[in-house]
Every structure is written in C-alpha cells, then in structure tokens.
Amino acid sequence: MSRIRLLGAVSLLVSIGFPTALAAQEMISDTTARKQPLTTWGVQLEEFEYRYSDDDEELGVWDADSFYGTDELKLRWISKGEYSLEERAYESLENQLVGQVPISKFFDAKAGVRFDTPEGPDRTYAVLGVVGLAPQWFEIDANLYMSDEGDTSADLDAEYEWLLTNYWILYATLDATVAFSEDREIGVGKGLVSTETGLRLSYDLIDRTFSPYVGVVHERKYGDTADFAKAGGGGTEDWFAVIGARLAF
Amino acid sequence: MNTTLLAGIAALLLPVIGLAGEYSLTVDRVKIDTGDFVKTGIGYNGKSPGPVLRFREGEEVSINVTNNLDEMTSIHWHGLILPFDQDGVPGISFPGIRPGETFTYRFPIQQAGTYWFHSHSGFQEPDGAYGAIVIEPEGREPFRYDREYVVQLTDKHPHSGDRIMRNLKMIPDYYNRQQQTVGEFFSDVSENGLMNTVRDRIAWGDMRMMKADVEDLQGFTGLINGKGPEQNWTGLFEPGERIRLRFINSSAMTYFDIRIPGLDMTVVQADGNNVQPVNVDEFRIGVAETYDVIVRPRQARAYTIFAESMGRSGYARATLAPEEGLEADVPQLREPARLTMADMGGMPGMDHGSMAGMDHGSMDMSGTDGMSGMGDPSMKGMDHSGMAGMDHSNMQEMDHSGMAGMDHDSMEMPKGGASDPFYAKGSGLVPVAANGGKFLSYADLKAQNPLYEDREPTREIELRLTGNMERYIWSINGVKYEDADPIRLQYGERVRFKFVNETMMTHPMHLHGMWSILEVGAGQWNPIKHTVSVQPGTTVYMETEVDEPGQWAFHCHLSYHAAAGMFRKVIVEGGPESAQAKAKAGATTEEGGDA
C-alpha cells in the first residue's frame, strides 16, 4: 500500500522533473526521548561523618537520599543511621521508601513506608510528608508517621546555608521529633522527643560531589523521653565534634 | 527497497542538476583538548569542531553523513532554508541516523552567509558535534574584505551533557559559583546601608530567586575554533587589510560579549543576512546566533579577540596577528552580573506601573547596587540627596512625576549608563562596552535587503517563556514539550510571535526552516534572523512568513533548557499540492485521522 503511494509520488515527481525524490517522505510523529518525560536520578549524602561526643562516645553517622524518576513522580530511598563504634551496634537505623509528587511550585508531597531496624525493637511506619524550599531559602522536610504499634509522631528537618564564599559553606541544621503517643518499648515519650542541631563548615573540593566538613552537633532528649533515657542509664544531652563529607553523585 | 529506489532516482536526476556538490562527514568519537582539560567527545571527520563546509548559493548539495558512533545521531543545518525532511531533527524531520548508517542529505542552497551545523540528538552538540557553514553568494556583497576567518565559539565543559543535565535536575545551582555570599552582603551594606540590603535579600528570598542566576552552567573553558585561551587560536593578517570575522556562537548555554581592544568592528551580517553596517566596540552574541564583522587592523601588532561570558564566569580568547606567536594583553573579566527586580518584570504581582515614564538607561549611576524591593510599597519617600555623584546631563527624558516612591540610593542602574530597548529598564544584564563606547543592540540591526514584502501579520501567537529554576523545568506557556500539542500554522500566512519572558533567564529562541523577522521598529527593514534572544522581563515580537511546508522544531537553543521542555513542534498545514498531501498524511499519523 505505502509502496504504491511512494511509486505514485515518485512518478509524479519524475514527470515534473523536480529533483526532490525525498519529498515523498511522510511527516513522522515524535517518538524520541525528547518527547518522553525526562527520567533522572541522583544520590546525595548530606551527612557522612564520624562523631566524637563529650562523653567519649564514637559514632559513625550517615543521612543519604537517592531518587529516581521524573518531574511528576519520583521514587526516593532515604537512609539514616547512627552506628556506635564502641558497642558495634546501630543506635538508630531507618530506611524510607517513598513516592514523591509536586504539589506547588516549591513543594512536593511524599508518601511511603519507613523501616526502623536498630539494635532493639523494630518498627515499621507509614509516612506522609512534604519537602521543599520555604521562603528565605530554608530547606524543609516535614513528616507524619504512624507505627505498626499504632503510635503517631512527626518530625521536622530544616536546613539553611550561608555562603562564606562560593566554596566555603556553613550549614545549619535543625531536626526535631514530636510524639503524639508514648512508645515506651523504644524509649519514646509523648510530647517533644528530641532535637538535633548542627553546624558544619564545608568546602566544595570536587564540584559538589565531594565536600569535606567539620562541625558540631548537639543532641537533646526532652520530657518523658529524657526520663526513659535516664532510667535506662543513658544521657539526655550530647555534644559532638564531627568530621565528614557531603557527597553527591 | 526504498533506498534503492531513491538512489536510482537520484542517479537519474543528477545530470539535470547544474551545480552539484558532494560532501562527506563522518560522526566520530574524538579527543578534545582545551588546554585546561582533555576529554572524549563527539566530532566530525575526526575533530571537534568539524570542518568548515563551504557551499555556493544555487548549488545542489548532497552530504553523506556516516554515523561511526554506537548511538543514533543527526545533523541539523542551523539557519538553512531547506525541505523539512532534510532539516535533521530526529522525531520531526526524520527518524535519525542509526549507528553504522550513512544518510545522504540533499537540498538546494538558496541563501548566502555564515551558518553552522550541529547534532540534534541528545547532548551530542554540547559534547562537540558542531561545525561551521560558509555560503558564497551568487552576486556581489555590499562590503569588501581581503581575508576572512570563521570564529566559532563554544563553552566546553569537563562534564558530559548527560551528566550536566542530571546534575542540574538534582541540584539546580550545581554549577553556579557566582552566588551572593556573606561577604557580598557586607559590601552591599557598606554601599547601600543595612536596611536596604536586608530588604533586598528578603525580597529575593521571598521569591526564592537568585540575583546571581545568570549562567546555569559555569566551569567551562571558552573555545574559539576548538582552541582554549592558552592555546590561543591565531588569525594572520597584513596591516591595512580588511578582515571579515564570521562569529558563530555554538555554545550549549553561554552568551558571549565580544570585543577586540584597539579595533572598531563593523557589523555587516547577522544570522547570515546582510544588515546595514553598524560600527561597534563590542557586541553580545546569543547562543546559536552568528554575526559577521569587518575589522581593519592598521598596525603590525597583535590584537586580542576577547569573548567574555555574559555572567562573567569564563571567557574565550583568540588573537589576530601579523605573524604566529605574537599576542596582546588579555583583559580581566569584569564583575559578575546581578539580576535586578526589573528582570523579574514578567513575574506575577510585580508592579512597574509607577516607573513608566522613567528611562533608567539614560541615567549614569555607576557602581550602585541592590535595587532593594523595587515596586515594593515600602519604598515611600524618594531620597535624591544621596545622588550626588549622579550625572544628570542626559536625563532629559526622565519623568519624575511617576517616581514618587523610589529610593534611588538602593536602585541598581546599569553601570556606565547604557540603555537597550531589548532589556528590561533597569535590568542588571544591560550590556556596556568595556571601553565606554558603542555596544551593539538588536535595535541597531536593519536589513540590507528585505527578503519579504512588508505586510500586516495575519495573526499573533503569544508564547510565554516559562520555567521553574528550583525544579529545573523550562517550558512554553507553562507546558513542557512532552505534554504539548504542536503549534499549527497555515502555509501562506504571516504570523506574529509574541515572546513574553516570564523567567529570569535569557532564552535564544530558534525557529527551524523559516525566517524570524525581528521587530526592531524598522518596518520593512526589520532584520531577518534565525535565532532571537529574549531577555528576562521583556516582550519581543518576531514575524514569520509561513512559506515552507512540513513540520519544524521551535525551541530555546540553550541545550539544557530545550531538553527540560522549552521546545515545540510547528506544523505548517497546506501549501503546494505535493506538500499538502504530506501535511495531511502527517496530520493523520499525529492525531489519528483528525485532519
């Protein structure tokens, strides 16, 4: 069929002596990658560090975030852990798998599951959160959690960066956790649970791929959570000196 | 079957063609050495940039392109008027050239001037797949010269195009190393006062926009004809000769401000079309544009061709000299550009109404910075007392009546008092010649010979240039290419395109296949271009005589903006009988019979 049409077109062209045999080609529809949603991926470790506390406690800590997807839908794997070098055990270890969709110009909504598997009892949570850039350049990540035990909690992470130069950057971070019900087994009391504030001075050594830093981190437990910690023989407040690197690839 | 047929027809027709040239290009993996770094890239005939293709007007060319890559490729002949299926855009003109395949382009050369060619597949062009085209005219040119050089610029980056795109999607300011620092805050405080500076930072922080967002892609080495600044490409001359320099900006992302200290430049051609000569000291070349200039060095010494990026993050450099090995001083980069609130003119909610009568450009307020919260109600009570150092001599056109609420102290004026109607008034991007002389404006471009009779456009199509820097999404009318319907034009109409730039970046808009007649207010002498730069906060008009059937690409020529969605397909419906049949067939495949 198409061959007959081609022959017809060609004979027409020959008959008028017009030298564009290729004009017989039809207009095509665009099935190239350009017409498809742009799929991309990335891995960022905002924290990858060694912590040394005022109680001589030593921790290895990371906060990693990997994504794959398009502007409309991303799959994210967020992994955070604190490993005690002394006890050779995870003080905390959480992994989240969430789907993320844009809800406004600067914010995304995410939903998924979080698995906590540290030393001690495990928990699985349903996660609902928002992440994005607030006015005045605050990076915000706020989440609601409901555990398999039925307990609900929330956390808020905020980050702000000061560019001392375009390579020396001072990062301020605040993480706060609130519980709406008590989960005694994992040492969480109702109310404000804990905060972690950090100040890290980094230098972009290789693009934004490898940025070593030093800093200080302050961790504090509050209310019933602090009482549970004390009852268990633990501390409620720690100061850490940290050394590590931000990574992105 | 088809190919044999076509080859047979071509062989049959060959004797009929008077002037026919056959050319061959291979697409190869090549090594690119910028002097700063060495990387593998893509080139033509074993080199990047590829060869200069020299055609003659009236010639019927056939160009055999052999793909030696292990991926699809294509070549687009940028600015050439040709049948749409020879235009070389995969998915629009043709399917592309498969690995190992030789594709033969055939088209008549119907124009003269300086053009270029590049791959339209993936990021092969930023990876090195580009070259120059020089077309000798049939008749005499309205200017004389003794020798000529192609001066082809690019912004070669150590990262591959794919990696750059991914990094920009992950961290949109990944490559921006000109951001405002704590140090700049304090220097602004000492210049403009604490409150003005704080208000300025809050105004920008509230929008989550960066004044430093001028160049997405920094960290490149500017190349001229494939040579980095240290490798110093050199063009030889005899003192007193007229030299025609064919400037082509083949960058992925970078606008260049070009000057040759010690030499006047006479611009004689823009985008391949002759313009009425303009003498300038400096000009800005948008991505994908070409400018031909004539210079006449009279002294037997070296002259530096200095091409500084618009955001001042990098430069390209070459030399004109009477003999090899000579060099002249290489200027320092000027201060990085900073956007102003005027560049946000397209932003919803910005009110510039009260400034209508004010011509910022004619004011000389060198060195001021930080137009904090312009159009902001908090700016009651204009204070002229702090304007001591201001040159009032050329402020006649300035209308103070509408300026009741303005604090001049904190307003950013283009340094040197330049003005250009193609930039927002008070824009931080208004170019100023380094020597204080004449900087070329689009408003200076007037066609030497109009290609078309001047007539009223049959209709207007508004294209808002839109985007979201934080997501690195770029779009037209808020829609990315992946979600967009084609723009449908009727053969024979004259369409007026209205570009409204609502983003804070400059976009070089390129319509394939048909000329873009840029509205500069010169009526029938409006210049004829193929690429039109639209500055932030401005509205620019161009008109197109829809005289080529088929389907064409229409996009921002910044590689990563185009790939992020600032791209459209244009379908020209109707036309000569044979073309009409094609258009119908195309419409059928496109929309399942809704023709």
TrEMBL record, chain A:
Keywords: Signal. It holds the Pfam family CopB. One of its GO terms (molecular function) is copper ion binding. Residues 1-23 form the signal peptide. GO terms for biological process: intracellular copper ion homeostasis. One of its GO terms (cellular component) is cell outer membrane. This is Copper resistance protein B. It comes from Marinobacter manganoxydans MnI7-9.
Automatic annotation (TrEMBL), chain B:
Keywords: Copper, Metal-binding, Oxidoreductase. Pfam families: Cu-oxidase (PF00394), Cu-oxidase_2 (PF07731), Cu-oxidase_3 (PF07732). The keyword Metal-binding applies. GO terms for molecular function: copper ion binding; oxidoreductase activity. SUPFAM superfamilies: Cupredoxins (SSF49503). One of its GO terms (cellular component) is periplasmic space. Residues 34-138, 221-317, 455-573 form the Plastocyanin-like domain. Transmembrane segments: none annotated. This is Copper resistance protein A. The lineage of its organism: Bacteria, Pseudomonadati, Pseudomonadota, Gammaproteobacteria, Pseudomonadales.
